[in-house]
Recover the amino acids of this structure.
């Protein structure tokens, strides 16, 4: 087996994809989704004692949505590396995958903002009126993701043009 | 109009095999075969120039513009 850069990237991405659920199970076993851990993850959110443990755990699990989208993006990345590995990097297929990655990064940024808000709302839903909270968080991480996504979409579009040009050139001798 | 490739005729005139032409102009035999059968979108000027040089001919001896024939008719 040749250990070229595309091969290393391909297997590296697959390793990450396979490690993600194992890591998730490990985090659950280690109690990272226990009510106390979720409370600690939201130090500024006043979680009422009336709030049931199940609701707190569920609120914590909602935070996995961006990670789910991240796993889908990672799957797209491995598909791109697979094409790169088979010398099919400059194809329409690769361009569409790059565009998908861009869309995925935007979705992660949006999901991070939305899930954080939903989590704060869920954690304070049992509070008395006036003590419920809807926190909206938008930081450099989300800006970075959106910028990276824009870059990926632009690269994807350029790749479509390049792939068409290459396809056209294949007919010339 | 369509462009018809007359490379077969010129090769026959020069008593040259496609493989020899491919070797001399530096393209694959498969590409020469595609060119002979007209199954290409186009030909680069430098490929055409090398073919003309090897076959001692003009581009017009290899390429011919002919009225488009309706194959369904």
């Amino acid at each position: 087996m040749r250990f070229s850069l595309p091969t290393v990237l391909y297997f590296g991405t697959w390793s990450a994809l396979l490690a993600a659920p194992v890591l998730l199970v490990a985090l659950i076993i280690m109690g990272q989704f226990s009510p106390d851990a979720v409370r600690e993850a939201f130090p500024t959110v006043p979680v009422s004692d009336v709030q049931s443990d199940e609701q707190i755990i569920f609120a914590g699990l909602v935070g996995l949505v961006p990670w789910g989208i991240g796993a889908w993006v990672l799957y797209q990345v491995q598909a791109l590396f697979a094409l790169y590995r088979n010398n099919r990097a400059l194809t329409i297929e690769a361009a569409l995958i790059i565009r998908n990655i861009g869309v995925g990064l935007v979705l992660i940024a949006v999901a991070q903002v939305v899930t954080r808000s939903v989590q704060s709302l869920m954690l304070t839903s049992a509070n008395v009126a006036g003590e419920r909270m809807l926190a909206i968080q938008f930081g450099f991480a989300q800006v970075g993701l959106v910028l990276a996504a824009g870059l990926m979409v632009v690269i994807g579009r350029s790749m479509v043009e390049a792939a068409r040009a290459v396809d056209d050139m294949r007919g010339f001798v | 109009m369509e462009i018809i490739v007359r490379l077969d005729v010129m090769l026959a005139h020069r008593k040259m095999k496609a493989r020899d032409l491919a070797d001399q102009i530096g393209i694959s035999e498969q590409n020469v075969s595609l060119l002979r059968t007209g199954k290409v979108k186009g030909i680069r000027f430098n490929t055409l120039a090398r073919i003309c040089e090897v076959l001692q001919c003009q581009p017009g001896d290899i390429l011919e513009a002919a009225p488009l024939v309706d194959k369904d008719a």
About this structure: Chain B touches chain A at residues 27, 31-32, 34-35, 40-44, 47 (CB under 8 Å).
